[in-house]
Every structure is written in C-alpha cells, then in structure tokens.
Specification:
Structural class of chain B: alpha/beta
Largest sheet of chain B: 8 strands, mixed
Strand order of the largest sheet of chain A: 1-2-3-4
Oligomer: heterodimer
CATH class of chain B: Alpha Beta
Order of helices and strands of chain A: EEEEHH
Strand content of chain A: 35-45%
Strand order of the largest sheet of chain B: 3-4-6-5-7-8-9-10
Radius of gyration of chain A: 14 Å
Low-confidence stretches of chain A: none
Mean pLDDT of chain B: 94
Largest sheet of chain A: 4 strands, antiparallel
Number of strands of chain B: 10
Number of domains of chain B: 1
Strand content of chain B: 25-35%
CATH topology of chain B: Rossmann fold
Chain lengths: ~90, ~260
C-alpha cells in the first residue's frame, strides 16, 4: 500500500551526492514504496536544499530494520561525545 | 510491419509515442505521455494513472502496452505542477513533501486526459481508466466522478476500509461508490493487507447492493503491486492473467 504518511523536519548541514555537496535545510521522511531498493516498503529520507530545485536532493531508501539500526547508530554517536559538543 | 494476435484479434504493433500537453484540473496545462497505434481505425482510449512513485519508465511501458493492445493511451503527469521537467523520482519527492495530489485535482487531470483522447480523430468516443496502488483508488474515484466507459482498479487501498489514524488520507470512497458510472474490473492479491481480502469483500458487497457492473479477480500467492515488473512484489502468474483480464474487459467495454 501507499502509506501517504510524510514527516518533515528542518535540518541544518550539508549532504553530498554523486555530483557535489549541497547545503540541506529540509528532511522529508516517510515509509512507503521505494524507487530503487529491493523491498516492498522502505524508510525513505529526502534531504533537500533551499533552492526548490527537485534534483537538489539526497535520497536514501532503507529497509525498516536497517533504518532502525541507523536511528540507533545516530543516537549512539550523539550520546558518545561530551554533551557540550552537541548542544 | 509486424502483426500480432491477441486472442482472435489481429493488430499492428507499430505505434507512435510522444510527450504532449493536455488540459488538467482548473484548466491548467500539464504534461502527458501519449502512445497511439499507427493507422486510422476507430478505437477506444485508456487513461493510465501513474502510481505514487511517479510518472516513471514502468508506467510509460504500461501506456505503450495499451497502444499495442489497440488503444490510444495517455498518462498525465500528476506531479507536473510541482516539478516540471524533473526526473520522475525527484518530482514524486517534491509532490510528496507538498502534500500529494488532492482528489479534486486528480479528477480534473484525468478528465482532461479523457477529453484529449476523445478529441483524437481515431477516437470511437469510449475511454477507460486504470490505476495501480494509489492509482487504483484514484481510478475508482475518477469512475465515480467522470463520464468514463470502463475502469480498472489494481489493488487500490482505501476504496473501502478505514485509513489508520495519522494517515493524511482521511476518507475512503464508500460514500462515492453509489455514483460509480461505468463497469469496474478489480484485480487484487489475496496476500495484500491494503486492500485486505475483507476490504475487497466489502467493496464487492457495496457494488452488488447498488447493482453496479463489476468483475473481480483475486490471486493467491500475490500481494500488493504484483503487476510491478521492476519490484520484488512482482508475481508473474497473477500479472499475466491480470493482463488477460484487462484486455478482455476493455475489449468488451471500449470497442465497437
């Protein structure tokens, strides 16, 4: 099924695709059919810049299990450094 | 020019394809992919509604298949407003981030595509619609809202059934089904959860109660998206038989 659900979050940083780096300002996160990954549904993240150019996008499609591992890894990485660095 | 046989019908596999502009909802001009069999013979038309991942290669292959079956076929780019000229996956991402395609706009865009098909010199005046996944629901929506001659719903979720809490899509199409204006072919996988077999039962019961013309086929060992040849959900037996059902259904309602 198409889930239709979409979660958005403002982000601040950079992302690199095959061509070059872009400054990303928005994350769109949803669990739905992928374009490329070999799974019926994946956790998809689109990181986009402020230009509005549809091609200025870094996209990932992860299986649910691997997305959960990524979430945990991100949390572990943030927790493993002195709090002052991540404030 | 080669000739091929589809059941007892002999047709040409020569066709022409092009990207065109058609009128969409509110008169907005949008992009569409058109495939037409060569030759002047009168024929029906088919509007193909692309799935949520976009106006992509797989969908355009479906459009060409309908031309090979002898129909003028068109797929409006439902994301053209958000991302004209963008790659299909990028356009789908932009459209999703902006909230997706409202039902009212979908109906207008399909209506514009159907009007375009009927304006062709080869048109016999009959137009069908087909959609897969989210497009399956949209195909039923269009058939409840527009003067079409045949509709195909391939595993569209939330025609019946209640969308889970938190989903942007708030309502099913149960209230609209009494207005269904044309015969409906439904193709479903028994391993699908959305729509589930119970939801398909509910749809069938509503259609029966309102004396609608419909034909449903359900496939074991098939779940959602069993027609999608580029996805792991592809099920060749269900897809092959499904294509035969579609060809027979459209031959019955779109020809003559």
């Amino acid at each position: 099924m198409c889930t239709y659900n979409t979660v958005r979050a403002p982000v601040d940083g950079s992302a690199k695709g095959p061509g070059s780096w872009i400054r990303v300002v928005d994350a769109t996160v949803y669990f739905d059919h992928p374009v490329h990954a070999m799974a019926a549904h994946t956790l998809n993240i689109d990181l986009t810049d402020a230009s509005g150019d549809p091609s200025a996008r870094l996209a990932v499609e992860l299986t649910a299990a691997s997305a959960r591992r990524l979430v945990a890894a991100i949390q572990d990485a943030l927790d493993s450094v002195p709090a002052g660095l991540t404030d | 020019m080669d000739q091929i046989e589809v059941d007892d019908k002999v047709m040409s596999d020569s066709m022409r394809t092009q990207t065109i502009r058609t009128g969409g909802h509110d008169g907005t001009e949008i992009e569409a992919y058109l495939a037409r069999p060569d030759g002047p013979e009168p024929r029906g038309g088919v509007v193909v509604i692309h799935h949520m991942p976009g106006y992509d290669r797989a969908t355009k292959e479906i459009v060409r298949r309908f031309a090979e079956l002898g129909y003028d076929a068109i797929c409006p780019n439902l994301y053209f407003r958000e991302a004209p000229g963008a790659a299909p996956d990028d356009a789908a991402a932009v459209a999703r981030a902006r909230g997706g395609v409202p039902d009212e706009r979908l109906v207008g865009d399909v209506g514009g595509a159907a009007a375009y098909l009927r304006s062709l010199s080869s048109s016999n005046g009959k137009v069908g619609v087909i959609g897969y996944c989210s497009g399956g629901r949209q195909s039923v929506l269009a058939a409840c809202s527009l003067d079409l001659d045949a509709a195909v719903d391939c595993y569209g979720a939330f025609v019946t059934g209640t969308p889970p809490d938190g989903m942007p899509i708030r309502t099913n199409l149960v209230d609209k089904l009494p207005q269904l204006r044309c015969p409906l072919l439904g193709l479903f996988g028994n391993e699908d959860s959305y729509p589930s077999p119970n939801q398909v039962d509910e749809l069938e019961e509503i259609l029966r109660r309102h004396a609608k013309t419909y034909e449903f086929h359900r496939y074991d060992d098939a779940g959602h998206a069993f027609f999608a040849v580029d996805r792991p959900t592809y099920r060749v037996a269900a897809a092959n038989e499904g294509w035969d059902r579609i060809a027979t259904f459209y031959r019955k309602y779109l020809e003559g």
